[in-house]
Amino acid sequence: MKFTLSWLKNYVSLDGLTADQLADRLTMLGLEVDAVRKLYEGLEGIVTAKVLSVAPHPNADRLSLCEVEVGDEVIPIVCGAPNVRAGLVTAIARPGVCLPDGHKIKKAKVRGQVSMGMLCSWRELGISEDHSGIMELDSGLDSGLSLAEVLDLDDTMVEVDLTPNRSDCASVIGIAREVAGFTRQKITPPVTEIPELDGSGLDFSVTIEEPELCPRYTARKLTGVVIQPSPWWLQRQLMAVGMRPINNIVDITNFVMLEYGQPLHAFDFQKLGGQSIIVRRPEENEKTFTTLDTVERPLTPDMLMICDAERPVAVAGVMGGLDSEVTDTTTEILLESACFDPVSIRRTARKLNLPSEASYRFERGVDPNGVDYAMERAVRLMCELADAEVVAGGVDEYPGKKELLQLDCRVQRVNEFLGIALSAEETADYLRSIEFEVVDRGAGVLGVTVPSFRV
What pLDDT digit, counting tens, does each position of 405-427 carry? Predict the structure, then answer.
């Protein structure tokens, strides 16, 4: 599980904690920290630049001669990027600057023309793997500004090696909850209220034929969706934890999955046959299924599928299908947030040799009572970042709803296990700090209600 300090700070204060101190405290809580890494180092000296003019290189067909503004200076640059053009604001490394890979930029002559630096791609600066051209920044930026400051790149990534029993920490909010516990704070979740989804007045339906494998399934429809690149803040957070930005809709589902620990999936509504979702096993004639990665995969009768009225459209909890994916022409979306049986997902992912961020979380168990909160968070972001309008209401099928687990906690027994002396009041305080409900039954016994995220 990877997260950044800037992301974590959205939900809990880290005042007074350095990255190393945070790592030590998390490790002592049983969340072993594997890595603490400062991000985007080596960008000192990389600044913004504005291309003023572009002309063909007289001695090379694929090169351009550029006049580039850097602060108060205008300098010549030879550039081979296909997207270089007048008016473009990008990043430049001047002579004497070292790139993150150690390459030192020098004044040079390229096919007889002087070049006073290099216009840089995202990959050359170690920010992402995009090497299709030089960086394209906000056209309103001044030249000569520190790139690290402009893009807010001063951040630290922390990686935690989770044990299988701590699926509640496979999310940034889960980590924040633990930090809030030992710093005696309350987390600030992005969603505190959710609408009722009673399934009425909709032009789509959801049927769960295998309730033991799908204890909860929620769905909402959004219209007027505009598919476009995500804003920089969203792309930056995803890239910082090793995920590649795709488009605003896919990025939002990935962001919320990492934030809440709840995988989501967006279907192109127009591609769903019969305007319905059926959660079932494959039928006898359904032998293969083509997933989003364009691979045709064999199906077995024990696998759980998400289907429309005509065919499967996703491998439940593992990966979506090619025929219902969101594309640049998508304008209507059916958004899924669901809970699936961990054993079933683990078996399917192994058989298909298809591990994914979604299956990683479903295999360990997701919070069944958090499904609708993740849904609401994603809906709000899609309305904000994709100009979408959410259709009132939605479907929330919850056949597997269970009462929260209640336990008696004997304080003396706890102390014997830990080898320390805690009072009943102290024990209750520690449990409440990580969102357990506790009542004192007297005689050294606490009544404890286990929250649903401790699956």
Answer: 999 999 999 999 999 999 999 99
Gap between the Cα atoms of 335 and 414, Å rounded: 44
Q: Are residues 114 and 127 in the same domain?
A: yes
Same domain for 385 and 263? yes
What's at 319, amino acid-wise?
Answer: M
Counted domains in the chain: 4
Domain identity same for 131 and 57:
yes
Could you tell me which of 39, 4, 40 has the C-alpha nearest to residue 22?
4
Q: Say if residues 275 and 412 touch (Cβ distance below 8 Å).
A: no
Residues 322 and 432 placed together within one structural domain of the fold: no
Nearest to 361 by CA among 235, 180, 172: 172
Query: Is residue 356 situated within a structural domain?
Result: yes
Does position 101 have pLDDT exceeding 90, yes or no?
Answer: no
Yes or no: say if 89 and 150 are a contact pair by the CB < 8 Å rule: no
Distance CA 369, CA 378 (A): 16
- What residue has token string 């150690």? 102
Task: Count Cβ atoms within 10 A of the Cβ of residue 285 and give its class: 0-12 exposed, 13-18 middle, 19 or more buried.
Answer: exposed
Q: How far is CA 418 from CA 413, 415, 421, 430, in A?
A: 9, 5, 8, 14
Q: Identify whether residues 125 and 168 lie together within a single domain.
A: no
Q: What is the pTM for the complete model shown? A: 0.92
What residue numbers bound the domain in which 219 lies? Answer: 205-397
Task: For residue 359, give the amino acid letter.
Answer: S
> Could you read off the pLDDT of 424-445 as tens digits, one per residue?
999 999 999 999 999 999 999 9
Residue with tokens 């192109």: 268
* 283 and 244 both lie in a single domain: yes
